[in-house]
Amino acid sequence: MACLIQCKSSNDEGDEQKDVEVPEGHYKNPVFIPTFADPTVIKADDGYFYAYATEDGWEYNKPAHIVPVIRSRDLVRWEFVRDAFDAKPGWKNPAFVWAPDINRVNGKYYLYYSLSLWDDPNPGIGLAVSDSPAGPFEDRGKILLSDEVGVKNSIDPFYYEEGDKKYLFWGSFRGIYGIALNADGTAVAGDKFQIAGDWMEGAYIFKRNNYYYLFGSNGHCCLGRETPYNVRIGRASSIEGPYVNQQGQSLITHEGNVILAGDPSPAVTTGFAGPGHNAEIITDDDGTDWFLYHAVDKSRPLLPNGATRRPLMIDRIDWVNDWPQIANAAPSDTAQRKPALRTE
Questions:
Q1: Would you name the residues annotated as active-site residues?
Q2: Which residues on adjacent β-strands are paired with residue 313?
């Protein structure tokens, strides 16, 4: 038996809202189009999952979405809600709002974000806060600038809270660093420490059993169907490291192990290239972990404005000998069983 899974999208340049036929209880990538780069996700009190993405122009000759917000009950059928911001944060101008990171902190929704341009000499990270996961988010201003912390390309924030300690991790191909935050998560409150070298960006840490797993993206994010982006992994027994790959080598001096990659060959025009910049890992009601990320659909690699089109994807994680694996180490392009989530 088959059912119809609805993909929400814009209606420009062939990106029409359409139905994709898959077997009942299954889904097929991508799960949201036309684009949803650098996703971050949280489950809110209303039972919905809310996801947020990098600023992007979805339709020709229309304003860009300043951190679009979408929501879903099952992680595979998503609907657009609104943009997180009514107006772009103004403490650094001109700049784009990239790679947000959503969290629940002190009873409110905290959205850390990057403010940067391509090849920006002094990008930074800010914070916006809302009582609702849908926003709008009120900008609280700057957390750090690259020049202030001595780390070039200070973008891609990731917040982590453990006990009474709050941390911010960040960095993009100039080393990955962490720093303690104050009690309300609004300012840095310590000295930075390094956890990985200059081979990665988009840091995300997931604790499982006795290890902290560091996921990061390697390679250029945005070269259309030739995008080489991929996801690599290491782990540590302490949140501050040292992090090592499966060969026991330091992630400061060596790269992590690849767990997800696409096919960037220009001769291949189907399937997916450039998977990366994963969101928070979500554990379903059966205890299975799910990996949300973006990738490039090689059959439709560009947005109307010429930017690389990076729709939202999801795939299952399997754990083998305390290391994460994704089937075939590649994005799935056939029907897959949905996450086990009670949605009533």
A1: 38, 201
A2: 293
Cα 118 from chain centre: 18
What would the pLDDT profile of 317-343 be if each residue is shown by its tens digit?
A: 999 999 999 999 999 999 999 999 987
Query: How many angstroms separate the CA atoms of 200 and 233, rounded?
Result: 10
Identity of the amino acid at 10:
S
Q: How far apart are CA 165 and CA 329, in angstroms?
A: 34
- Cβ pair 100, 84 in contact under 8 A: yes
Structural domains of the chain, with CATH: 32-337 (2.115.10.20)
- Per residue in 220-259, pLDDT (tens digit) is 999 999 999 999 999 999 999 999 999 999 999 999 999 9
76 phi/psi in degrees, rounded to 5: -125, -20
The reply to whether omega before 68 is within 30° of 0 (cis) is no
What is the phi/psi pair of residue 224, to 5°? 60, -140
Give yes or no for a contact between 41 and 49, defined as CB atoms under 8 angstroms apart: yes
Residue with tokens 């009514």: 86
User: Are 289 and 14 contacting, i.e. CB atoms less than 8 angstroms apart?
Assistant: no
Beta strand 201-208 with 68-72 is unpaired
Q: What is the pTM of this model?
A: 0.94
Question: Which residues make Cβ contacts (< 8 Å) with residue 70, sequence separation at least 6?
Answer: 8, 32, 36, 50, 51, 53, 78, 79, 80, 81, 312
Write down the H helix ranges in 49-185: 146-149
Query: What's CA 206's distance to the chain center, in Å?
Result: 13
The helix/strand/coil state of 328 is helix
Among 148, 155, 195, which residue's Cα sits nearest to residue 172?
A: 155
